Amino acid sequence: MRSFIVEKKHKIGDIKYDHFGTQVTNTKTEYCCRGLIVTSCFLFVCASAVICVALYQHGMWGNSDISDISGSLRSTVAERVISCYYNMPSEHATDELMPSGINPNLCTHINLAFAQVVSNEIRLEPHQYRTITEMVKLKHTNPDLKILVSVGGAGTDKGFPDMVLNHKSRKTFIKSVKYLLRNHSLDGIDLDWEFPALHNALGGGRERQHFSQLLREIRMEYIREKRDYILTVAAAAPQAIVDVSYDVDQLNLYVDYVNIMTYDFHSFTKYTPFTGLNSPLYQRSTEQLYLATLNINYTIHLYLDKGLDRNKIIVGVPTYGHTFSLVNVDNHQVNSPASGFGSLGSLGFINFPDVCAFVTNTENVTITRDNEAKVSYLYKNKEWVSYEDPQSVMEKAKFIIENKLGGAMIYSLNADDYKGECRGALARAGVAGFPLAKIVSKTLKSHISSSEQNMSLVQRRGD
């Protein structure tokens, strides 16, 4: 589910930290190695032929049945979507998030991750079907909850290209979709192909066209079945991928929502050996050229400029962070040279509870709030971590409200503090268990409630 232009991996209120005894710096950071960064990123992006060429004109089908299709979509948002990804536990899990630990009222949609495409069909492991059964039971408590299966994920590009290649293989896939949804009481599917046409320089335009055709055929099958099934797509954030992978007008026509992966803007790779913010809301004033595009605000307006309906835009909110190992402990700003992943977490990824534990149990950790990007990072010695906290996720929720977007996508429930163990500087009073997801959910839902009250007031005055 993670999108990163360089390399994929396998995978609130204001908070005042000073009275917790943790050092806080609110000053702007300096821009380090600007020329190196811009050059490295730009050359890497332009080295790929698929990034640097225009591939294909929009609108490959006629409009003979567009009205029928459009009428079947959720064109307005009565309440904002809170779409939560849940990584299904392994077969013999003992210390993972289980279905019984999920609050049925926390999310409006839960995407079960991940099924794969094998031999042109959806493929799940036997133990995953048991998880699906348990997740569907949550609807007994909240009948409005929607349970979807997400197909794909990072590093799973192999099955999609062959499946979308022709009508016969797509038909086989759609048949397996129908069987899965019918027989397991599911509400729809989420397609997380990372990424259409990106690795196919010669036939990229055709592959993108085939993906759009798949979306159309799934939607038409939903209509023929007379089922109110949901179709969503997990889409990339970097413009270099967006321009190559998606026909936005086709997304508008055939999908209910687009879960935009507005995270992994920066992580350590051999191409980007410097610190960076995982999910900045806005551009930092020192960022120019390509770096100036790596933020949520730019990405969302990119999709809007391409014509994506605001109601379909679901903004990704991560519950995990990225770790880095500093080259020089005295050079600890954003974009400082890094030698690799940090020692915290795993392979550069760190869950929110682990960030919280590090801050709580370690002395002299410096927490810095970047007031431009609206996110925080921390450092001690060589450890440098970009992460989300209660304040940053609330800022993202407010951004969704201010821009009248469709909702938020939480990635993932598993990386949030689902056990409610966070204490100290990063804890939020009165919020235990899934604190980041709860803050996003509460912020969006409270705004809907307030809007409904105002509308009711206007209607009464007009009577």
TrEMBL record:
It comes from Spodoptera littoralis (Egyptian cotton leafworm). The chain crosses the membrane at residues 36-56. The lineage of its organism: Eukaryota, Metazoa, Ecdysozoa, Arthropoda, Hexapoda. Gene3D superfamilies: 3.10.50.10, Glycosidases. One of its GO terms (cellular component) is extracellular region. PANTHER family: CHITINASE, CHITINASE 11. GO terms for molecular function: chitin binding; chitinase activity. Residues 80-447 form the GH18 domain. One of its GO terms (biological process) is chitin catabolic process. Belongs to the glycosyl hydrolase 18 family. InterPro entries: Chitinase_II/V-like_cat, Chitinase_insertion_sf, GH, Glyco_hydro18_cat, Glyco_hydro_18_chit_AS, Glycosyl_Hydrlase_18. PROSITE patterns: GH18_1, GH18_2. Pfam families: Glyco_hydro_18. Keywords: Glycoprotein, Glycosidase, Hydrolase, Membrane, Signal, Transmembrane, Transmembrane helix. This is GH18 domain-containing protein.
